[in-house]
Design goal:
The protein has 177 residues and is an alpha/beta fold. The chain has one domain: Trna Endonuclease, Chain: A, domain 1, CATH 3.40.1350. The protein is 42% helix and 20% strand. The chain is built from five helices and seven strands. The protein has helices spanning 5-18, 21-37, 94-110, 125-135, 161-175; strands at residues 45-51, 60-66, 80-87, 115-120, 142-144, 146-147, 158-159. The strands form two sheets. A five-stranded mixed β-sheet has the order 1-2-3-4-5, sandwiched between helices. Strand 3 (80-87), helix 3 and strand 4 (115-120) form a beta-alpha-beta unit. Helix 1 runs antiparallel to helix 2 and helix 3 runs parallel beside helix 4. It starts with a helix and ends with a helix.
């Protein structure tokens, strides 16, 4: 397990070179979970994959929930500490950006105690600018760890260690619960 940005990126680049396009999304989620999220899970909490918050019609990549939370048509909102959308390649379209923003806004308005994270390992400048512009002041939910250049470049064109530091800082707030 590591929280070193360079090690995380090199590990992920190696996985990309060995994986088919269809495998990359799920493999990135696993890599992120094992190498980034686990150290921030407080005692009394656990991670639930591909689940909903009860009453919200959206399946999140990960939820951090109370250890004793029951999954019945999703997880009760009072049992959810944080939600995560974790992507290897980020956004693919304006409707995708709109859907994430809309869903995160619903969660924030209805359950302000739930922390929100949208993490993309790499994103093109075009979609990064669109996302930041569309999210506006809600861009604090959004973490772009590298520039994918043309969208398929491995390794990415450039990395953003300050985004990594911001992500780690905000993940650290989960331990204080």
């Amino acid at each position: 397990m590591t929280l070193d940005f360079e090690e995380f990126c090199n590990g992920w680049n190696d996985i990309c070179l060995k994986s088919s396009a269809e495998e990359k999304g799920a493999r990135f989620e696993e890599h992120f979970l094992e190498n980034v999220m686990l150290p921030f899970i407080s005692k009394g909490y656990r991670i639930v994959k591909q689940s909903k918050i009860r009453g919200i019609d959206y399946k999140f990549d990960f939820l951090i929930v109370r250890q004793n939370a029951i999954e019945y048509f999703g997880v009760a909102p009072q049992d959810v500490l944080a939600v995560f959308e974790v992507k290897s390649h980020g956004f693919y379209s304006q409707p995708n950006i709109e859907r994430v923003k809309f869903t995160f806004e619903i969660v924030q308005k209805a359950y302000p105690q739930i922390k929100l994270f949208y993490v993309t390992y790499r994103e093109t400048n075009y979609y990064d600018q669109k996302a930041r512009s569309f999210f506006g002041n809600k861009a604090r939910w959004y973490y772009r760890l590298s520039n994918s250049g043309n969208g398929v470049q491995i390794p990415p064109k450039s990395y953003f260690p300050n985004e990594w530091k911001r992500l780690i800082k905000n993940l650290s707030t989960l331990k204080s619960v």
